[in-house]
Amino acid sequence: MQSQPFHDLIDWLIDGARSEAEPVAMMTRTCERLVAAGLPLHRVGVFVETLHPDIYGYGFVWRDGQGIVTSETTVDVESLEEYQRSPLKLMYDSGGEVRFRLDDPASRAYPFFDDMRGEGVTDYLALPLTFMDRSINGASFSTRRPGGFSDDELVALRRLTGPLARLIEVISLRAIATTLLDTYVGNRAGARILAGQIRRGHTDTMRTAIWLSDLRGFTALSDRLPPEVVVKLLNAYFDCQVGPILRNGGEVLKFMGDGLLAVFPIAADGGDEADVCARMLAAAHECRGTVAAMNYIEGNHIIEGFRFGVALHVGSVLYGNIGGGNRLDFTCIGPAVNLAARLERIAGRLGRTVVASSDFIGLCGEGFVELGEFPIDGLSHTERVYGLEVETLQAAEGL
């Protein structure tokens, strides 16, 4: 069975399947080459756990002539009844291979095989894909050939799992690294770090729209609420902002207590700056509504009437690695960020939700009114500050 095409496939996997860099393309090509090498495969499944805040694991299921269907689960697979009654559970529990001929009465104990028999499957083999840390993921192989897999074919499939596990582990680790970087520093910064921008002083100058916000009355809330309630409240509050920011092209750089710093990058030629500012303003309007509608109820803790403030500004920032020793932070700094922070404080003093600088208004001023000129800490000149017209009208009407 281990023909030259099969040996070529093994070498291709060991070499990193370089011609098919994407996981779906790699698995599709692997299955096609197995069939071309003489293996009578109808269905191949690969199931891999991952380290992701929202996703437990990924599934890839290939069928001959139909290609691959991918899936992801957001819950612990082991908690699902479908998994508890599946042959894969036997493989994970034992750490070894599991095989069923579908004419064997023992296969009737697994509902999964009812569907497989409906597809004409005659033989099923599940094999562990064991990673270097001894964690186990899984692969399954099914055939519709009368009589099932031959002994030589079983040997070939067992031979396949070593190189396949190594390659999937490399792909998984890279995906995990990307996910962790996206989760903790944002995808733009994460991509730079993964590309090797990891040394202190690696910075770029970037023109961007800047978002800096905080939750009103947070100090008083954190003083009177249990810490675990404060954490839940903050997570719910940040959920109100992160979605609108991301949907409108922004990137969240940092959470600072109840504060949030985000950037909306502008193209190098500045041609999209008005559009970028309009999208950031759309995000601010959405957040204004979602935070106002937010409430938190847990036990005796009933909290309503949340309010936040956000400053919108446009300017150039230094974007990159800053820190000391071997502890770095990928962030942005510069006078523009400092000004946004001062504007946010002015928003708090004025009881405003959204304020903007004159630089922002020059690009996206519709719906704003001038609030006056204000001294800015650390600057020798005053800054003209603008607020939403709708908030001015509401204040005049006593709303």
From TrEMBL:
Superkingdom to which the source organism belongs: Bacteria
InterPro entries listed in its UniProt record: A/G_cyclase, Adenylyl/Guanylyl_Cyclase_3/4, Nucleotide_cyclase
Record GO terms (molecular function): adenylate cyclase activity
Domain Guanylate cyclase intervals: 209-344
GO biological process: cAMP biosynthetic process; intracellular signal transduction
PANTHER family cross-referenced by the UniProt entry: ADENYLATE CYCLASE, TERMINAL-DIFFERENTIATION SPECIFIC-RELATED, BLR2264 PROTEIN
Record-given protein name: Adenylate/guanylate cyclase
Species classification: Bacteria, Pseudomonadati, Pseudomonadota, Alphaproteobacteria, Hyphomicrobiales
